[in-house]
Amino acid sequence: MKQVIGYFLGFAIFIAGIPALMWWVSGTPSPAELPVGRLYLAALIALFGLSISVRSIVYMKRVGKGNPFDAMGHEVAPRTKHLMTDGPYRLSRNPMLSGTYLYYFAVLVALWNWWSLLVFAVVAAVMVLQVRSEEKRLEADFGQEYLDYKKRTGRFFTFK
After folding, report:
1. How far is Cα 84 from Cα 29, in angstroms, rounded to an integer?
2. Which of 18, 33, 101, 145 has its CA at 20 to 30 Å from residue 154's CA atom?
3. How confident is the model at residue 1, as a pLDDT?
4. What is the pLDDT of residue 46?
5. CB 104 within 8 A of CB 48
6. What are the structural domain ranges in the chain?
7. What distance in Å separates the CA atoms of residue 98 and residue 117, rounded to the nearest whole number?
8. Are the C-beta atoms of residues 3 and 78 closer than 8 Å to each other?
């Protein structure tokens, strides 16, 4: 049950809530007022980003037997039993968040608004703090294995 609540909260906050806040601060009353080409481009980017996030969550659940997410030091869902270094985790130490960032970028493309960019920047800064907290926990849980992984894989994207 704890895991279902964790996933529901993740969806409510990250997939629905933050984009809704970006939309609200933009002052855009309806999607009909946005250029169709920009909406199509945004939809493609959003689907790509969400597919990365969902694939990473499923992979983490199946292979890692849990979820890496701690909310600022508090366990939200069962922690992984194994360090994920392959699958979507071979290109990013945080593919769920990388996909979510792409999703938010798609919202920015659709809205094309400075206020929405400000919301994204604040959310990104908070999430980087969260990632740093998770990295400390992963280092404590997995030791040298995690340190080696950290050296060869980028936090959000690996450019090799």
Report:
1. 42
2. 18
3. 63
4. 97
5. no
6. 2-25+35-152
7. 17
8. yes
Closest by CA position to 102, among listed 94, 25, 126, 80: 94
Instruction: Give yes or no for a contact between 3 and 77, defined as CB atoms under 8 angstroms apart.
Output: yes
Residue type, 111: L
Token pair 């990632």 in the structure block, residue: 131
C-beta neighbour count of 109 within 10 angstroms: 18
Asked if 155 contacts 94 with a C-beta cutoff of 8 angstroms, the reply is yes
What is residue 14's predicted lDDT score, i.e. its pLDDT?
87
Per residue in 106-128, pLDDT (tens digit) is 999 999 999 999 999 999 999 99
- Residue 85 and residue 143: Cα distance in Å, rounded? 14
Q: Which two tokens stand for residue 111?
A: 């809205």
Q: Give me the mean pLDDT over the 120-143 stretch.
A: 92
- Checking if the pLDDT of 143 tops 70, the result is yes
Token digits of residue 34: 């946005």
Task: Give the residue from 29, 21, 40 showing the smallest Cα distance to 110.
Answer: 40
pLDDT digits (tens, 9 = 90+) for 64-79: 777 655 554 555 556 6
d(CA 26, CA 4): 32
Contact (Cβ atoms closer than 8 angstroms) between residue 52 and residue 88: yes
